[in-house]
UniProtKB/TrEMBL annotation:
<dbReference type="InterPro" id="IPR044492">
    <property type="entry name" value="P_typ_ATPase_HD_dom"/>
</dbReference>
<feature type="transmembrane region" description="Helical">
    <location>
        <begin position="224"/>
        <end position="245"/>
    </location>
</feature>
<keyword id="KW-0067">ATP-binding</keyword>
<feature type="transmembrane region" description="Helical">
    <location>
        <begin position="56"/>
        <end position="72"/>
    </location>
</feature>
<dbReference type="Pfam" id="PF00689">
    <property type="entry name" value="Cation_ATPase_C"/>
</dbReference>
<dbReference type="GO" id="GO:0005524">
    <property type="term" value="F:ATP binding"/>
</dbReference>
<dbReference type="InterPro" id="IPR023298">
    <property type="entry name" value="ATPase_P-typ_TM_dom_sf"/>
</dbReference>
<feature type="transmembrane region" description="Helical">
    <location>
        <begin position="257"/>
        <end position="284"/>
    </location>
</feature>
<dbReference type="Pfam" id="PF00690">
    <property type="entry name" value="Cation_ATPase_N"/>
</dbReference>
<feature type="transmembrane region" description="Helical">
    <location>
        <begin position="813"/>
        <end position="835"/>
    </location>
</feature>
<dbReference type="GO" id="GO:0016020">
    <property type="term" value="C:membrane"/>
</dbReference>
<feature type="transmembrane region" description="Helical">
    <location>
        <begin position="782"/>
        <end position="801"/>
    </location>
</feature>
<keyword id="KW-1133">Transmembrane helix</keyword>
<dbReference type="Pfam" id="PF13246">
    <property type="entry name" value="Cation_ATPase"/>
</dbReference>
<feature type="transmembrane region" description="Helical">
    <location>
        <begin position="703"/>
        <end position="726"/>
    </location>
</feature>
<feature type="transmembrane region" description="Helical">
    <location>
        <begin position="747"/>
        <end position="770"/>
    </location>
</feature>
<keyword id="KW-0472">Membrane</keyword>
Amino acid sequence: MLHLCYTQSMAKEDKVEGLTSKEASEKLLQFGHNEITDSARNGPLRILLRLVRNNFIIYLLFFGAIVSFYVGEQLTGITILGVLLIIIGVTFIQEFRAEQSIRALRQMIMQVSRVVRDGREQEVLSKKLVPGDLVILRLGEKVPADSMVIDESELEVDESVLTGESRAVKKKTGDPIYMGSFITNGKCQAQVLHTGMNTKFGSIANMISEAEKSLPLQDKVNRIAGYMVVVAVFISILTGFLMISRAEAVNSETISGALILIIALCVSAFPEGLPVVLTTTLAVGATRMAGKNAIVNRMSIIETLGETTVICADKTGTITRGEMTAKKIVTPGGAIDVGGAGFEVRGGFSSDGRTVEIAENLELKLLLETAILCNDAKIERTGEDEEYKVLGTPTEGALLILAAKANIFREDLEGSRLEEIPFSSERKMMSVLHKGINSTLVLAKGAPETILLKCKYMQKDGKTIPLTDEEKKHFLQLNKKLTRESFRTIALGFKEADSGKRDYQEEDLIFLGLIALEDPPREEIAGSLKICKEAGIAVKMITGDHRETALAIADEIGLSGEVLEGDDLDKLTDDELSKIIRQIAIFTRVRPEHKIRIVRVLKQLGEVVTMTGDGVNDAPALKEADIGVAMGRTGTDVSRSVADLTIKDDNFATIVEAIKEGRTIFTNIRKFVSYQLSCNFTELFVLLLGVILAPVFGWGIPILLALQILFMNLVTDDLPAIMLGLNKSSFDVMKEGPRRKAAIFNIQLLIITSLAAVLMTILVLISFYLSSNILLQNLETARTTAMVSLILLEIAGAFHFRSFRYPVLTRSPFVNVYLFWASLASLLATALILYTPLNAIFEAVPLGLWGWIVAMGAAVIFTAVFDVVKKIKLFSIR
């Protein structure tokens, strides 16, 4: 049992109408922001210590520097230490920037709270709540701070985040509610007692630190790196052993030289950059997605996004605009048209072309007043004369805007709400007990079939008359006609209640009429559906609306397929549903429990399911889906807390963009992994084969020196690999079916990587042979020619790995502008060690015309061969 420490004096310290802005500001200075401090936060020092602790390369280089100093190679030792510092610096910057990006993403969805300040209800950032604030909490919202309930209606709270108990807890006036828990039923007003680290949640967070979790992608990349390490160590030691065995005299200088070369070769061949490049790529990809209004809540889902085969999308607000507008009213006295659109108070009321005066139509006035009083939303002026901001659901907001067009506002209506029975997806209605000046009324609104079932009378021409079964059938037919025209409909009813009783029955109501709400499809939805079709992604529209409403919207956006209603879904077994579910494109009259069943059946069929949701009851389905998508604008805190992805603009097109980015990120990871492995294998084989072939061709060994290898590792291995991770989406990334749980490194990638490594190795050896044996240049010049050849080959390889399909000569070098500038930087760095005094450190020489011709010739041959391979479509890798 949880207990909140508070005293009656604390509860009474502040006025029940809330704080003033001045008082809130003073308390914010006193108590600080209402935030939980992350004890596991990766600050600069923590990142640096982790790098030094976990990076084996650092220890290798440090050992190499010590060996160099020991044998008197001070210049080599200093250079190795310089390389060591550069590696630490570059890796630190990448990790720090990635950490900053991830932290920024977490701040993009800021929780807001409704509070009463300065005597009026308003929204503030939850982090700015202070003790004494009066907060208003409704179904689905997260409790932002430890508080005491001062007024409630049917309040139930999920405290599992603190207690581990998933059962909802009933709360009454005077009970405590805790930061991090969720309102699962009813609503309340509560006074904030403790904020930030002074809350129960804060005290728990202070005792624990979040363990660092490895991503599935990270594990896959680490496995690849692990295999490469074994190969690198074996070949490096073999190369060193062969060097010693081929030496004319074995002495300490020979052994130390071989040892330094082994270390340099290990450092170069170890794919130490892969984990860092992966983190950077994921962070950059997530930032790109955020720029398109898709906020990643869990980095691990980026891989799964690209595998999506089915999108189950809510109709309202995702496929449609989510900006409800009342367009028609049907009362027992006749039909009325309503002008205007959106949340602007423009437009009047008319019937058969004649203006309807509200003062002369008592039934309409009563209907509008009922729509206001049986309503939990609020509207606020945005600053524009006719524009309003809705605090609450779009549907309830539209009813308030409708009444405002008749100049009827809640503030003008006298009385108070005594009791209420909240709306739920099972009941499909809401009712309140309202005490007016002269009477107490039961006011109800909800689905027409539900409200009409509870109505016994109707209001017509100022009189209350019986509502016959024929009349009910007539209104249901009218409702069906409206839903066929893609309207969402709401019915309203009322009755006088016994003023002496606070409990009431939702029976024998007086029917007031129907309100038809328009929510048009988003303009971009048709194009997004076309993209999904080309990408092999099935789209299923899920709605609680009538079949006719859903069909009208589906027809408008071009979504075709079978329709299944919720009641019919209940009659099917899972086996029966699995046989037809792929043909179903539209699910209507769906309840939250239907959503989770749809997801489970699709997953059993091997589909990768992305499911959208915004309500409290959608949380289980969002958890069950491979990717749960919450709505940023209309979604509840509960749905956002369990979702993997949050869509800030509630737009279906944003989900499609997120899937596109997910595919791109996975493809980029494949590209930089393949590129870096091809470079690493090339450097290993060039050194090994150089030693093996030396007696045959009379070469000096090694072909490349330790510092030359370390230089290439910095400028042409890691830098272009990082930039390959920044590739933008290719034009055809959404023109093929989704990959099905594909491995990062498969047989085709192994073949193409091996082909690149073998071809580069052969061309470097040929370059060394031409320089040494044909042009008869000295060993330093031949080594320099081989080094420049390998640098140009690796740069050419980076441009080839931009695409596994399209020849490099058919694509602009600026397709990836980052790679272009990184390659240019690599060339400038190469020129720096060739034509400045630095060449003495790296034992290189200024390369002449013939050297450049040989090196560039190798790069041209490599490009030609690979372009031919792509042209004949030897590989079908994306």
